[in-house]
Amino acid sequence: MSFSLVRRFTMRRNQLFLLVAGLICSHSVALGQDTISKQLSVSVRQNTPVPAATTSTSVDVERERLYNELAEEFSAFNRLGNLVRRVSTLVKPSVIHIEAHKTEERGGTRESYDEAGSGVVLQLSNNEHWVLTNRHVVEGAKPQEILLRASNGTEFYPEKVLTDANTDVAVMKISQPAIPAARLGDSDSVGIGDFVIAIGSPFGLSHSVTFGILSAKGRRDLSLGAQKIDLQDFFQTDAAINPGNSGGPLLNLLGEVIGLNTAIASSSGGSEGIGFAIPINMAMQVAEQLVQNGRLRRGYLGVTLDPNFSIADMATAGYSNTSGALVKEVRAGSPAAKARLRSGDIIVLFNGDKVENDDHLVTQVGLTNVGDSIPMIILREGKRYRTDVTLTDLK
Fold first, then answer.
1. What are the residue ranges of helices labelled H in the chain?
2. pTM recorded for the entire structure
3. In terms of domains, do 64 and 85 share one?
4. Containing domain of residue 248, as a range?
5. Residue 317 and residue 366 share a domain
6. Cα(173)–Cα(122) distance, rounded to whole angstroms?
7. Which of 185, 220, 183 is nearest to 360 (CA)?
8. Is the confidence at residue 217, as pLDDT, over 90?
9. Are residues 85 and 96 in the same domain?
10. How, if at all, do strands 208-219 and 195-200 pair?
11. Mean pLDDT across the chain, nearest whole number?
12. Helix, strand, coil in percent for the chain, rounding step 5
């Protein structure tokens, strides 16, 4: 199974299936008490079975009870369906269909093609409206080559495009006051098993809605084909995500954006129930820096980490901790060197957060504000130490 960024493919024919559920009510047949008594009396005298009508009556009553219970359960489930419809109706106007015209060198010749994706309109801290999407959706296209289409059919082009290769996040400035900004949620508060909704343009079918749950958090070791994403902290979802969903919002049932749909794991090129989204807190942090600085000011610690370090190695070293990142090398003059880190140190806490592995620490450092003094807890020679580090800007 391969992991791939969600890109557009063509589809000759679209088939839509509608499942209609109905309730069938049956009517009980009541027999008079005298009639039943006579039938029973005759049955005893003649040593014959009770007529089928008596047995079917009890069966019909039981079936009626089951149908009533089913109707009650359907009513509760239907309320969830109504909620999904209301969220979709509320957020769809904020979702943008993207078509980027690109030109690439292939085999010595320049070839042009269109790539479809999605985006969501958000209001940043400067009170301007920007379309948040994935870098790979618009990379290689100029602003005048990126067609944006709202749910009401309005078409326009972005005024400015800013991207970050470290996280695959991009933002595009727009001047369309009639398009409402979506509401932001808190991706840190999302839990595994929570219901989620994805809106995007799978296979170019704009503003499509799918529904599922959040399957996992903290996916950080994905190999995403030719494009390298250094800072990873993905949500995993089973909501159907296909080529063209890239850059579209992942929502909670409050209609809040909690993620940016980015990639799929697939052996067929289509949805197999394993999709990945950038948590919105992370995406917005990058977006704000892109708007304010023109780029992501990525934090720099100055260490080389051991990617093969495991919990078993931690236990062998005599520690009870279940996670951490092993320092293999400390670069001279780096923030780590000034914080007196050494080769062999195990970093277990960074800025108060547990360090799960080397990939996790790389993401934590990369998204930490440059110039802030950050506390770290390290293990060294069987003892626990605290040190503070001031990160610099990785340029």
1. 33-46, 52-91, 135-138, 280-293, 311-316, 335-338, 358-366
2. 0.79
3. yes
4. 186-283
5. yes
6. 10
7. 220
8. yes
9. no
10. antiparallel
11. 85
12. 25, 35, 40
Domains in the chain, number: 4
| Domain at 258, CATH number | 2.40.10.10
Beta carbons within 8 Å of 343's beta carbon, 6+ residues apart: 327, 328, 329, 330
Say how far apart CA 263 and CA 52 lie, in whole Å: 61
Report how far apart, in Å, the C-alpha atoms of 179 and of each of 101, 133, 370 are: 23, 16, 34
> CA angle at residue 221 from 220 to 224, to 5 degrees?
105
Alpha-carbon radius of gyration of the chain: 29
Stretch 3-31: mean pLDDT: 37
In a shared domain, residues 227 and 314: no
CB 166 within 8 Å of CB 174: no
Provide the pLDDT confidence category of residue 4 given band limits of 50, 70 and 90. Answer: low
Structure tokens at 351: 């800025």
**Active site positions, annotated:** 136, 168, 246
Read off the pLDDT of each residue in 42-69 and give the average, rounded to a whole number: 67
pLDDT, position 299: 94
- 195 pLDDT tier (thresholds 50, 70, 90): very high
Query: Among 73-82, 176-185, 266-275, where is mean pLDDT lowest?
Result: 266-275
- Where do we find the tokens 């129930």? 273
Strands 256-266, 183-184: pairing is parallel
- Type of residue numbered 178: A
Phi, psi angles (nearest 5°) of residue 19: -100, 120
* Range in 267-281, 305-319, 377-391 the model is least confident about: 267-281
Asked whether 137 and 98 are in contact (CB, 8 A), the reply is yes
